Amino acid sequence: CMVDSCRTCSACREGLEQYCEPGMTQTYGSRDPKGQAVGQTITQGGYCDRITVDQAFVLKIPDSLPLDAAAPLLCAGVTTWSPLKTWGVGPGSKVAVIGLGGLGHMAVKLAAALGAEVTVLSTSDRKKADAERMGARHFLINSDAEAMRAAAEQFDLIINTVSATHEIASHVNLLARDGTMVMLGLTTEGLPVFAMPLLWRRRRIAGSLIGGIRETQEMLDFCGEHGIVCEIEVIAPDQINQAYERMERSDVRYRFVIDMGRMAATA
User: Fold this and answer.
1) What's the domain range around 166?
2) pLDDT averaged per 10 residues, the chain (length 267)
3) Same domain, residue pair 121 and 248
4) Is the pTM of this model over 0.90?
5) What secondary structure does DSSP assign to 190-234, as a single string?
6) Residue 258: inside a domain, yes or no?
7) Residue 10 pairs with which residues in a beta bridge?
8) Nearest-CA neighbor of 176 among 148, 204, 196?
9) Where are the beta strands (DSSP E) in 75-201?
């Protein structure tokens, strides 16, 4: 997701380059921390078959991982890994994941591999079998009021991956005392929540953005050791528009990967 940062601010010195105070340089559509266009142009690394990167931002993919299925780990993988590690998920933790999409399916796999008891919350049972195969022990339909009441005050951490505007007040009640809901979905509108459920159990709502280089490598090594990859569908560059339309219909399980090696043949 990023190819550079200022490396001098407090975030960069802590290995949290994604929170670089002047702003990280993203792989595509970005400028360098000094405000100058990298290479006199906006970065386009996400859609090239080659890219020049500073060695400080190069990552090693474990030999045990196929490159196509490992590629989205650099986005969906570290985006879910970072909050799981930040909030200390491990054996004995109870984690809920809202939404089983590109981010959600990685949150389930990683949390389960870390030893947590994982519950998936979804709007239907369409992906229940997938959730269980990925490591979830429980599956809740969030419109089932009785099931939601039964799950109240259970979870140490809720990973909310939903990017559409949605109701979160009832999900806050699922948090145990001192529990945290981490928002990963980029919603375009505000999400109303009442203060009382937060105050009454010292709960928190937080956010998290991708991950630093050090924790990204840590995540890759962990995935290599545990055989964890993203579930993907490989497409050619000339299928991007169709893939986008399918994504808007939620018709993808669970990440599209563009085969840039086929770019010349489809240009």
Assistant:
1) 72-207
2) 91 96 87 56 71 89 96 96 98 97 97 99 94 98 94 98 89 97 90 91 97 98 97 93 92 89 63
3) no
4) yes
5) -----HHHHHHHT-EEEE--S--HHHHHHHHHHHHHHT----EEE
6) yes
7) none
8) 204
9) 94-98, 117-122, 138-141, 155-160, 175-183
